[in-house]
Amino acid sequence: MTQPADERFGPGEGVGRPQAPPPEPLPYPAFDGHCHLDMIDLAVADTLAQAASAGISRVITVGVDTASSRWAADCAAAFPAVYAAVAIHPNETAAAATTAAERDTVLTEIARLASLPEVRAVGETGLDYYRDSAAPQVQRDWFRAHLDIAKQAGKPLMIHDRDAHEDVLAILAADGAPEQVIFHCFSGDAELAQRCAHAGYLLSFAGTITFGNAAGLREAAAVTPAELILAETDAPFLTPSPNRGKSNTPAQVAHTVRALAAVKQLDVAKLCAVMEANGERVFGPWPA
Ligand SMILES: [Zn+2]
Ligand SMILES: [Zn+2]
Question: How many domains does the chain have?
């Protein structure tokens, strides 16, 4: 019998591609630090079961607007293996509000969600100068507002930075960064990675690090201390090699973890243990 509470966590729309085959299980528990469970074309329970078989015991599902942020918080409340991040994505900022009063209402709701115990980050927020769905000035205004919310809630700031490295770093420096900052789907080079590491920011690497043309990204991971590294899928997007072209799920983070271990010249289980500790330090503590 289908219950209304379950319907909310049924299959999402997906990206219209076949699912990637399950990876070989990791030798030590790991987690997916950034995904969009609501966009994956599997029921949440099935996605989590698949992830668990690959050794992925936890996921952080990320909101991009008010509705998906509420959904993420509800999903985290319903599933012990799920935690949430809430925010208005930079590409959604122009559509999120047309008046100052509407903007205040939206930000008040994000702040309310950010204060919930199952919500472990404010994100994804930041700057995306690659797409032009919102003017840079509008994006910067919302990014600053999210930065304040993160500080007030005492939660990490999960940053989406696309073609906007310098402005992101300048705003963090000018406004004062929260205690924990994560660059989701890090896309910079070794020099940027060193600047972020110097500031104590965490770099979350996605499946892009497994791509043949991503030598710069692998150099960035190589110079980043393991204590500042996280792994994520950004599922259903950015499926890691060897499954490019298929639909991504949190289980696939196992490929990214193995690629990171190779770059760091660390045993896979050892890197997983370090990243588990990083996750607890930044997002946690996870309940036992
Ligand atoms: Zn993003
Ligand atoms: Zn994302």
Answer: 1
Beta-carbon count within 10 A of 100 CB: 8
Structure tokens at 19: 């699912």
CB 264 within 8 A of CB 36: no
Q: How far is the CA of 55 from the centre of ligand 2 (A)?
A: 21
Residue 12 placed within a domain: no
Give dist(CA 35, CA 39) in Å, integer.
Answer: 9
Ligand that lies nearest to the alpha carbon of residue 72, given by its number in the listed order: 2
Ligand with minimal distance to 183 CA? 1
Q: Which amino acid is at 189?
A: D
Domain hosting 166: range is: 25-282
pLDDT digits (tens, 9 = 90+) for 71-91: 999 999 999 999 999 999 999
Cα of 160 from ligand 1 centre, angstroms: 4
Query: 236 C-alpha to center of ligand 2: Å?
Result: 9
| N-to-C CA span, the chain | 31
Centroid of ligand 1 to alpha carbon of 1 (angstroms): 36
- Provide the whole-model pTM: 0.96
Report CA(158)–ligand 2 centroid distance (Å): 10
Residues 70 and 54: their CA atoms lie apart, in Å, by 28
Span 125-170, pLDDT tens digits: 999 999 989 999 999 999 999 999 999 999 999 999 999 999 999 9
Contact between residue 20 and residue 248 where contact means Cβ atoms under 8 Å apart: yes
d(CA 116, CA 109): 11
Residue 52 belongs to some domain of the structure: yes
With tokens 């472990």, the residue in question is 120
Residue whose entry in the numeric block shows the structure tokens 């925010």? 87
CATH number at residue 253: 3.20.20.140
